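the two lines:
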Amino acid sequence: MIRLNDIVVKFGDFTALHNINVHVKEGEFFTFLGPSGCGKTTTLRTLTGFIEPVQGSVFVRGKDITHVPIEERNIGIVFQSYALFPTMTVYDNIAFGLKVRKMKKPEIDEKVRTIAKKVDLTDEQLKKAVSQLSGGQQQRVAIARALVTEPAIICLDEPLSNLDAKLRVQLREELKKMQKDFGITSIYVTHDQEEALTLSDRIAVFNKGVIEQIGTPNEVYNHSATEFVCNFIGDINRLSDELVQKLAAGGAEIDPGAHHYIRLERVHVNEPERAGVLTVPGTVSMREYYGLYIKYYIDVGSQTLKVMERNDGVRIYDEGDGVTVGIDPADLMSYPAKGEEGAQ
Amino acid sequence: MNGTLARPRPLDTAKALQLIGALFFAYLFFGFMLLPCLNTLTSIFTTRNAAGEVEPFAVIRFFLAGNMAKFVWNSLKLALCLIVTVNVVGISIVLLTEYFDIKGARILRLGYMTTLIYSGVALVTGYMFLYAGDGILTTAIKEVNPDFDPTWFSGFNAVLFTMTFACTSNHALFLRNAIRGIDYNTVEAARNMGAKPFKVLFQVVFPTLLPTLFSLTVMTFITGLCAMSAPTLLGYDSINPEIVRLAGSSVADEAFPQARAALLSIILACFTIVLLTVLSSYERKGHYLSVSKTKAKLQKQKITNPVANVLAHIYAYVLFIIYMTPVVMIVVFSFQTYSAVRMRKLDLSNWTLLNYFGQADYSYLTSRGTYKTRAGSISGVFANEATLGGIQTSFVLSVLAAALACVIVVVACNYIFKHKKTGTVLEYALLFPWLLPTILICYSYRVFFNSDGVWYVFGRNLYYADAVRILMVIAYTVVRLPFSLRMVKAAFYAIDEELEDAARNLGASPVRTFLKVKLPIILPSVLAVFALNFNYLFTEYDMGATFASTYGTTYAMVIQSMTREEGLYGYNINASGRRCASTVFIMLVSGLILYLVYGVGARDLSERLEARARWRRRWEKLSGKAAKETTETPGGKETKAET
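prediction for all of em together
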């Protein structure tokens, strides 16, 4: 469906994208994830035509669109700020693209009302100014406006970043449902790993203008390809050299020269002994209560390990309690030591 | 690709438009900004002596001999004194209405803001109506004390007094905004740490106002330096009136008047350039920005010391009286008969609208003992030919220039925001007139275009006969460009860049994107700039006086001349009354414009839709009621129709 081949983008002397290669399948929800300034929006803008790459090509359904003007690419965009035209009503915002295409009035009206219905906008809301709508309604208008011209692809550039936490979760669900209903190929840009993990079919993790990993949410979370991805996605413990030595002494086959990481939920407190699990003694130094989970900070001598335990209401440890921490070496993610990047 | 139709890219049109734009702006800059002013500059050094030889430094020698330095010194003295007096009064009125808890602050604010709706000649003549030799107050004092000097309100003191109150408009607008922008939490924090109210004022509040105060001070200085109407009407020898006088003089009367006018204009320009450079380098350092995430609204501070509180109230109301008295008197006297106005005595039993509308004859006793009647010698603003002519001229010239300035800066801003490097060049070119005093531009036009040899205006003498109106429109436009550019550019900043991307993404061409998306967003600001430009130009005096042409007699010049011609040979009997009515008319026009700009014009689409819905509901309610009445009352239909 979408193929970005060896894309290089430069701003003066600065290279923003280094040989980006992405292949997005038809109907897929694909996310560009990464910290600010990593190149995810630049990649999106290259796909949509706002930026022309100095090298490489963009293909959509086998057609090279690298040098096709923005207005002829037929790619819908939902902008970070939604970019709704403040001087137009909701109806006029949605109808804008159709008017540009010089469609007849009745046809425009039919298309606008159909798409509005699909995104749950009432006739009354269509008459309003966009500023009279709530954040969620505005997002629906932006989606309707992007979809009404029946684009081949829809790009969503951090559309939830300006909303409060509760609304973000609510709209995330709506967004996923809408994407499934429309079945349209979607490119989603975000720096929020939780958003990426919950929404996407596949994720491309960006860092400093390169893609570190492309994979399903499970792949990038549990089998992070690089140390950066491992650090960027979710919370994690990097094991100190001393702890690594302890584990090696306990019989674990691990390379003492590498960097070893373990997810919080893979570390267990006072777990009954089981084959392959190595234990180290520790003391609870702090506890954070999350309701469904409890997060413990446990001193194990050379470092403090973070542990996320399911709250069963029975095994709850207080600060100062002596505990044993169980680690299965098979759960470790190890990377060759190249530097101190991402060290915790 | 779902079969969407591809549209042709309007690249060639865009390039052609850019080329036309570039040529136009080059024509505007070189033809109407640079060349005329350069001509003025060179004219200083091309003076000819009696033998017809060029004497490059004759004017400079003349200046250094002291003959002209007086005007420069007088202007400097006025500007320096104004810095003190305007800041004292300006800061006072803002603190009294916005910072301290003074009873009746709302009424006081209205009084202090009256200078927003009348200024320039209208204001000066208003003050003269009160304080001049034949003014109401002077006449009243003279009745009580016959030894009182009736000429007390003239010269430097009168100009300083009038301009002090006339120039506080900027304080009323900008300092008020600055003080309202203060985070009240900082005041509370200082109080919490034990600071007394006045310590808070001087150590917490004032420092945040300093950048605004600095800008206001520089602007006040420039205003004082370039003062025109007050010195002209109140008789004070400063630079601008002298330039206008010299511009109209000839070599037969005095030594090289044109070159002297040019030199004075250039001196004025040098001062302006230096001051604006200082101002912009200071502005570049940046303003104090509130770092608070949740800004608290400023709450008024009670003056705890009872004596200080009473004194503050007295001071506030004395200022209010000074501001309001001319306004009230002008409004009241505009409805008085010519005899009451001439005697400067209120006649509560006799009110008239003759100063506004209609005409009347005037009979007077001649030296031969017979009565003579002058037909139509008493006439209102809207019946007097000269006044109507002035209004008409000012209206047409102002509308044209205000609109032209808006169109030019909108096109320019659209370019500036898209093209960083060349855009900056264009921006500086349009800001160029800001560096030059208005009088220099107008004087340069008057001299440069008073010739058949300027090829780029097709060899037409633009100072000749009614062509001067074209020249005035160009001058008005050029003078308003910097202000318009700054305001419209600020509006362009408010446009979210993603809006343009969104429109392009939806298939709109750059021209369509501009017309359908960007222009509607900036339109309220553009209309506001248009209205403010019109407001400024409609009552403008300085430029009209510099051009001093019978074909370009503006409204302000008509107002200025009214008193001079009053009662001469039985003509123009109610000139003072008409002048009052003219001032009231100006106040109404300015008030209406300010209401349209800041009231109606500031509404966004949602507010407009709400207002429309409100009107619809009211209408439906009314028509529903009417329908109900029609059905309930027998024969009600006829009754309603009659109503």
